[in-house]
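re the bet — no i am not wrong, look at it urself. input seq straight from the record:
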Amino acid sequence: MTETVRSLTDLIQRASSRRFLEVPPPGDFGLAEPLPFPFLAVVGQPEMKLALLLALINPHIGGVLLLGPRGTGKTTAVRALTDLLPEVERSRCTYGCLPEDIVSGGVDAVCPDCARRFANGEPLTYSDQVRLIELPLNARLEDVVGGVDERAAIHNRVRVSRGILARADRNLLYVDEVNLLADDIVDAILDAAAQGIYTVQRGAVAATYRARFVLIGSMNPEEGRLRPQILDRFGLRVAVQGLRRRADRLEAYRRSVAYRTNPRQVIHAYGDTTEEARQEIGAARVAVAGSSLSPSAERDGLRMIQRLGIDSLRAEITLFEAARAHAVADGRALATPADVRAVAPMALRLRRTLHIRGDTIRGTAAEETMLRGSPRPAASRRRTSPRK
């Protein structure tokens, strides 16, 4: 009989602790379709997995930056999110008109076609799964922001094509080796992340695109520095280290061999829990809008930020938004001081560091002691609302 799952955090912890001891027989190789490693099969790394899940639940956190040596599972974990991504409402219009535009600005805020659809009671959006959009390290600026459509140029017409940032709207934008990006591409990402839109102009032709994405980056600090401007754009910063326990390293090896031998069987082994986690994430993403912070949680968070001497107001935004997401993931609508303490190391780490380089992965010893000195959050509680 299947054991009852109390909350999303309980599900993730239980699935990650499963032992996968048997190596499946050889299967079909050479498959063209992507078969990502199951997220729930990643061994250890609880802080990294928690940060990524919180970013899925609450996009207002501001993204996630994973810092650590090579081979610690950063890229594997991010790409494994594919099977956990929730659904989002997308516009049916080429101009990106949404129902909230009408709520905030009236019918005149949308295009004539969408105004007609709205008057006729037709939907302006459709449900679609969130996607993971990867930005290649060798991408050109035109690939990122968009450029002249070459097919239109053949017919002596000028049209601007969508770039990676436009395709990342309401999706996850993943940048591996983010510290090695060219400065002009970093500037484009910063501008789009700050405004939620960006404009491309090629001669007399200009186009404005929406770019509301969750930015996820990974890097090895030994390979180069990260500009402070883009560092400030990441809400949660996670220090990813290698597994310390021998049993965990052996289990990670066994799961890796099993996946290389027969990826479909490994994915199937975690299929039920993966689907359940995806539904939990979708429900939490809806519930986070109705969650709030207790007065004691607000006081504790502000006191911690003041003691650390952090100037950026993004510290409060990230800390409190992550705390609300953490509470919802645990089946609660009210975030407590325990939720603030649970996310504080990720939200406030390196807030006073001008750049990351070399072995600068964590904050100072005093900062880490202050962030982790409080008691750990209480165990997961039962959901207060019935599961759909």
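see?? The CA atoms of residues 25 and 262 lie 7 Å apart. told u. also The longest strand covers residues 197-202. so pay up
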